[in-house]
Design brief:
The chain has 124 residues and is an all-beta fold. It has no helices and 11 strands. Strands 2, 4, 5, 6, 9, 10 and 11 form a 7-stranded mixed sheet that branches. It is globular and about 40 Å long.
């Protein structure tokens, strides 16, 4: 059974940085990609960034490019989301997800496993 556990969220000020971690257990070879999504209050869940475990290929949303960096440590089965220059509009619950599908998909529906989420709040 795949389990994902996020950590690293918190309350920060605009312009600050945070590093989120997603530690995975029970991963199998069929889990190809791990991604981050976020969901702000009243909004739908949206794709932030994803990375393929084997190749390191990444995909990221436009709002994340230049500010967020995705890193992986396969030995620890951990994926990190380094977020810099945070803005109040980045406030959301951030979720880690894993999928067996090829590529780095942006639709939450194709992800098989989800963590519980970690709250990120950015004050102005």
């Amino acid at each position: 059974q795949v389990q994902l556990a996020e950590s690293g969220g918190g309350l920060v000020r605009a312009g600050d940085s945070l590093r989120l971690s997603c530690a995975a257990s029970g991963l199998s070879r069929s889990i190809y990609v791990m991604s981050w999504f976020r969901q702000a209050a009243g909004n739908e869940r949206e794709f932030v960034a994803g990375i393929r475990r084997s190749s390191g290929q990444t995909n990221s949303a436009d709002f994340a490019k230049g500010r967020f960096t995705l890193l992986r440590d396969n030995a620890k089965n951990t994926v990190y989301l380094q977020m810099n220059s945070l803005k109040p509009e980045d406030t959301a619950v951030y979720y880690c997800a894993a999928s067996k599908i090829f590529g780095v998909p942006t639709l939450p529906e194709v992800y098989d496993y989800w963590g519980q989420g970690t709250q990120v709040t950015v004050s102005s």
